[in-house]
Predict the 3D structure of the following.
Amino acid sequence: DAKTTQPNSMESNEEEPVHLPCNHSTISGTDYIHWYRQLPSQGPEYVIHGLTSNVNNRMASLAIAEDRKSSTLILHRATLRDAAVYYCIPRVLDGGYQKVTFGIGTKLQVIP
Amino acid sequence: SQTIHQWPATLVQPVGSPLSLECTVEGTSNPNLYWYRQAAGRGLQLLFYSVGIGQISSEVPQNLSASRPQDRQFILSSKKLLLSDSGFYLCAWSATAIHGYTFGSGTRLTVV
């Protein structure tokens, strides 16, 4: 299974951009990279996913390295509501359906 | 639109008592269903996943079991709870292999 490495924690000032890195050097060519975030006492929430190209949605942007061994989740303007644990996850297909394994993630603190 | 329901939100159970947590999905057919557990301060551990009625795959051997009696119903059970079963239990569904997960709101189980 592909493994990921993320910093345990990061801090950002409110209204500044945040770049959350993730290393996934063992990812296979068909594994999508998914990002989720988990607010305290809630289930994880889907943020964004991509395969090779950079992706944008209303929540964030995802920049994927050309060799696909790393990616960066970009929050363009951090708000206090963005304080959460962010998980970078390779979506592995096993027998035709996906298995998603969550690591510890990066705990993002947003400073007012 | 699709929704996922999980209950109860909190549960306190004595050691040795049985457990039944229920999860239902609305607005979709033949979803992939998942049970995760999160111990305090830890990442999410995949417990069971199901791709169809009566089809259950177990990721971690333990005293828990899962069943899928209907297409959109997923049940997590135990005959005798252990202290180590305490945690935050999350149900999730995905439509296909390329879609992300949608999580329920979770059940916080405390075994005393």
In short: The first strand of chain A starts at residue 9 and ends at 13. The radius of gyration of chain A is 13 Å. The mean pLDDT of chain A is 89. Chain A touches chain B at residues 32, 34, 36, 41-46, 49, 87, 91, 93, 96-105 (CB under 8 Å).
